[in-house]
Design goal:
The complex is a heterodimer of chains A (771) and B (153). Chain A is 28% helix and 25% strand. With 771 residues, chain A is of the alpha+beta class. In chain A, the strands form 7 sheets. Chain A has a 7-stranded mixed beta sheet with strand order 3-5-1-12-9-10-11, sandwiched between helices. In chain A, strands 7-15-14-13-8 form a 5-stranded mixed beta sheet. In chain A, helix 8 crosses helix 9 and helix 13 runs parallel beside helix 14. The radius of gyration of chain A is 28 Å and the shape is globular. Chain B has 5 helices and 5 strands; from the N terminus they run E-E-H-E-E-E-H-H-H-H. A 5-stranded mixed beta sheet of chain B has the order 2-1-5-3-4, with helices on both faces. The longest helix of chain B is centred in the last third of the chain and has 14 residues. Chain B is globular, with a radius of gyration of 15 Å. Classes of the chains: A alpha+beta (771), B alpha+beta (153). Chains A and B meet through helix 1 and helix 16 of A and helix 2, helix 3, helix 4 and helix 5 of B.
Chain lengths: 771, 153
């Protein structure tokens, strides 16, 4: 019987449940004994010139080892700026922009957001660090703040005067005149805000570093040790003089891809002072300094006929990059690519520009550019359906890309592999009891009740492992004691890689799971790896493990044949018992120990880098049922039903876990979460008392349905599932809220749909209808 | 200030700064690192431990306030090699992913089930309002709490 597809409980858990994980702050490595505590002095203002930094009082405080600023940085100068021609295409990869947009390590002469690192205090104890940081005096000459996209586009104040504009990247997709909308009988047009939210892993950023015998060892909470090592060469060392270790990592959600300037500074400080250094950010720092997500404004226009056929769609994106462009135009480029979603729309225009603002930098957050596309097209389809007085389900079905059209290239160039969007939608409608829900919705309206139902649908498609060409590495070893070790370049931070990869090895080699060790996140052991993001780990990392296991099996077959003195074609592996035998002769068997013992060094090993030539496109439908109290505007999420298809399911337990977490984060954006700034660029949501992280009390249990359409892109046939929940849930919940009040004339409410916003939208719609 | 605590059955005496928080005492003095810090504002519950059998957020209790009292952390929950029913339920129901909120979640649920041995789903959800998890969407945590209640009947 195959172990794949079964509900194997996680091998990671017993340790996490009895002694707790070992996160950076828990490390008790001998090399970290006596490590000093690092406390950053951060800008308290959004936009200012730095005219002086006085560290003398802090240096004189008890327990202070060092106070470091930009003046202390003894790093090689960055290479001079390459001139960028005006007509150069926008950078497509997720890379920071070069000069004049570069991000310094410490602020030099200017700060651009509240929370920007200005100085670093090293102390023997943590409490003393906070005391001493208060004593660092920074002189600021205030500049007007640019706290929003609107303010950035006004260009009255420039963050980078040398650039001459606040627009740091422009897309190059053409937006024409309005002729694509000619002949459309129903047109909807407006702005949709995809608000700034926090990734908010429960463990914030944390790094410890030791400089010893010419080697820098850095333990950091990251989604990819190998990329972190590359970034950390900024301290002026070649990669082979740096070891990066990812210990247990308390969540990432995209915001821990690589390392930030703070981690580079911690590594540098260890080298500079010769003392081991440890930094563990507070939640307040985390909400100021960790990259945030989304932060786009969409101008949309969609046209179609009265029967529900969509004829034309335009999406014009403005990306708020925050104070420093960490990913160039990558996020809005992905939003453009995925703009038409699951629909076969004859004419699509999508473009973007990215601006800088006096706010925390924006980078990847669960979905990274794709949720924004799905949120808007799904919202706009409902908007159009409401305007045309059609059922949103019927409109979706009329416009879906049909199964026989795959492989399908969208008007924006996305090469969808496989999909059956209508089947997924039918599945959720049946499970949710769509017709009954509509009947109950009508009944409540007709009875004049104040707690009304809203039914929201979202049909999504998303792109996973978009950088399949980078691939992922795996090394599988079988030892002469019968155990196996997997070294993976991907990097678990809660997903269950250790269980999943061990299952793959057990499936192929018949070595029981408790004899399979999975190792990740140590560049001394795994110098070459890519990491975990973009829902890539199983399809790339898992496929690498799968192929490496097969190579090990092939090599072992040769050894077994030698030992049996038989032809290689006559030996086989019984994966049930994990023993080698001669076909048709059950009495002659060899164990893995015996076969491995016959190999060089008692070890059979295979190294693999698996690459995929195309991304994969998981899809599904989600239905959300909310209750809206029209007297108070309060929204309660009652049910959430999803049908998700990401190919064959390796372990339903892990598959469901990814969807649960994704749905909660997606619903959180629709309902409660938003990072806010005031007009001066002061953050208003810098602790968990102010940022509305969603809780158990605001969510129901979720109802999950699945289908398994394999892809041909990788040997496991799998697609990614890490982000699908988030991508579908945001528009499903958002649509549900507006669906509850659309009969009152409400067409759109921006997220998060707080009671105040819902109540105000109802009041304004009523005012408009009585005019 | 000198404080004497019984932590997971072991007496610990130490001289600490007056402002030392219980969570720092547990992590730095008692060297019990399962208890994590997630917010510093009593909002997230990652640092939940039992103080004289009742759940508290140890980032909001001074070590001095716990003087003479008994603290149980995640490390003290299992009975020898035998997991506590709540720990076992978390394992079986996939109630954890990254594991960071888990120690606090488990302790909060132990306390919740002590007060209400057979809670409804809604009661579990209300009871966990002060514990934030970012990975699981709470679905399997709630399931684990209900399963642990069931197993303890």
């Amino acid at each position: 019987m195959s172990i794949l597809g079964t509900r194997v409980i996680r091998t990671e858990d017993p340790r996490l449940l009895t002694s707790g994980g070992v996160y950076v702050d828990d490390l008790r490595e001998p090399d970290l004994a006596g490590a000093v505590r690092a406390t950053f002095v951060r800008s308290t203002v959004a936009h200012a010139l730095v005219t002086g930094i006085d560290t003398s009082a802090a240096l004189a405080a008890p327990g202070v080892v060092a106070v470091l600023t930009a003046a202390d940085l003894d790093l090689p100068a960055p290479p001079p700026a390459e001139p960028v021609p005006d007509d150069a295409p926008p950078p497509e990869g997720p890379m920071p922009l070069g000069p004049p947009w570069s991000e310094p390590l410490f602020a030099v002469d200017r700060v651009r957001y509240v929370g920007e690192p200005v100085a670093l205090v090293l102390t023997d104890a943590a409490y003393a660090g906070e005391d001493a940081a208060e004593l660092v005096s920074v002189d600021y000459e205030m500049l007007p703040a640019v706290p929003s996209i609107e303010a950035a586009l006004a260009e009255e104040t420039l963050l980078y005067p040398d650039a001459g504009t606040n627009v740091c990247v422009r897309g190059r997709r053409p937006i024409g005149d309005d002729s694509i909308f000619d002949g459309c009988e129903v047109i909807v047009e407006g702005d949709i805000v995809n608000q700034r939210v926090a990734a908010l892993p429960m463990e914030g950023r944390a790094t410890a570093a030791v400089w010893k015998d010419g080697k820098l060892t850095v333990w950091t909470s990251t989604q990819n040790a190998q990329l972190s090592r590359l970034i950390l060469t900024a301290v002026g060392l070649p990669p082979d003089a740096i070891r990066v270790v990812a210990p247990d990592v308390g969540g990432g959600f995209g915001a821990k891809i690589g390392v930030d300037r703070e981690q580079i500074l911690i590594a540098w400080a260890a080298k500079h002072t010769g003392r081991p250094v440890r930094w563990v950010e507070t939640r307040n720092e985390n909400l100021l300094g960790m990259t945030q997500g989304r932060a786009q404004v969409h101008h949309i226009k969609l046209g179609g006929d009265r029967e529900g056929h969509v004829k034309a769609y335009r999406l014009d994106v403005v990306q708020d990059s925050g104070a420093y462009s960490r990913m160039g135009g990558f996020l809005p480029m992905l939003t453009n690519l995925m703009a038409p979603g699951v629909y076969d729309i004859p004419a699509v225009e999508a473009d973007y520009k990215a601006v800088v603002t006096n706010a925390t930098p924006i980078a990847a957050y669960r979905g990274a550019g794709r949720p924004e596309a799905a949120a808007t097209i799904e919202r706009v389809i409902d908007w159009y359906a409401a305007e045309a007085a059609l059922d949103p389900v019927a409109v979706r079905k009329l416009n879906f890309i049909r199964p026989e059209q795959f492989p399908f290239v969208t008007k924006t160039g996305a090469p969808y592999d496989t999909g059956d969007y209508e089947a997924a939608l039918d599945k959720v409608l049946a499970a949710a009891g769509y017709d009954e829900l509509r009947a109950e919705q009508r009944r409540r309206i007709e009875a004049g009740e104040t707690r009304l139902l809203g039914i929201g649908i979202a049909s999504y498609v998303e792109i996973t492992a978009a950088d399949g060409a980078a691939g992922e590495t795996a090394k599988v070893e079988v030892h002469d004691n019968g155990t196996a070790t997997v070294y993976t370049g991907s990097s678990a931070h809660g997903q269950g890689h250790h269980t999943a990869y061990a299952m793959i090895v057990t499936q192929e080699l018949g070595i029981p799971m408790d004899k399979v060790e999975v190792i990740h996140g140590d560049t001394d052991l795994i110098p070459d790896g890519v990491g975990t993001y973009a829902s890539r780990s199983l399809q790339l990392g898992g496929s690498a493990v799968h192929n490496a296991a097969i190579e090990v099996k092939d090599e072992a077959a040769k050894k077994a044949a030698e030992l049996f003195e038989a032809a290689e074609a006559d030996v086989e592996l019984d994966t049930e018992s994990g023993t080698w035998r001669i076909k048709g002769d059950p009495d002659k068997t060899l164990s893995w120990s015996q076969v491995a013992a016959a190999a060089d060094n008692g070890l059979i090993v295979a190294n693999v880098r698996f690459t995929a030539d195309r991304p994969t496109f998981p899809f599904g439908s989600q239905l959300s049922l909310v209750e809206v109290d029209v007297e108070t505007g309060k929204v309660t999420l009652l049910r959430h039903v999803t049908a998700d298809d990401a190919g064959p399911i390796l372990n339903p337990l892990l598959f469901e876990g990814q969807r649960h977490g994704g749905i909660a984060q997606g619903a959180a954006q629709a309902l409660v979460e938003e990072i806010l700034y005031d007009a001066d660029g002061n953050p208003l949501t810098a602790t968990l008392m102010d940022y509305g992280a969603i809780t158990a009390a605001e969510l129901p249990s979720f109802e999950l349905l699945t289908s398994e359409t394999p892809t041909t892109v990788n040997p496991l046939g799998v697609k990614g599932i890490g982000e699908a929940g988030t991508i579908g849930a945001t528009p499903a919940v958002h649509n549900a809220v507006i669906d509850a009040v659309k009969h009152l004339g409400v067409r759109h409410i921006d997220m998060p749909t707080t009671p105040e916003r819902v109540w105000t939208a109802i009041a304004e719609a009523q005012k408009a209808s009585t005019k | 200030v000198k404080v004497e605590l019984t932590v997971n059955g072991k007496d610990i005496t130490a001289d600490v700064e007056d402002r030392t928080l219980l969570v720092h005492f547990l992590r730095d003095v008692a060297d019990l690192t399962a208890t994590n810090i997630g917010c510093d504002t009593t909002s997230c519950g990652a640092c939940t431990v039992l103080l004289d059998g009742e759940s508290v957020k140890s980032c909001t209790v001074l070590a001095a306030q716990a003087d003479g009292r008994t603290v149980t952390t995640l490390e003290g929950l299992a009975d020898g090699g035998e997991m506590h029913p709540v720990q076992r339920a978390f394992h079986e129901e996939h109630g954890l992913q990254c594991g960071y909120c888990t120690p606090g979640m488990v302790m909060a649920i132990v306390s919740l089930l002590k007060e209400n041995p057979s809670p409804s789903e809604a009661e579990v959800r209300q009871g966990l309002e002060g514990n934030i998890c970012r990975c699981t969407g709470y679905h399997n945590i709630v399931k684990a709490a209900l399963a642990a209640a069931e197993a303890s009947q």
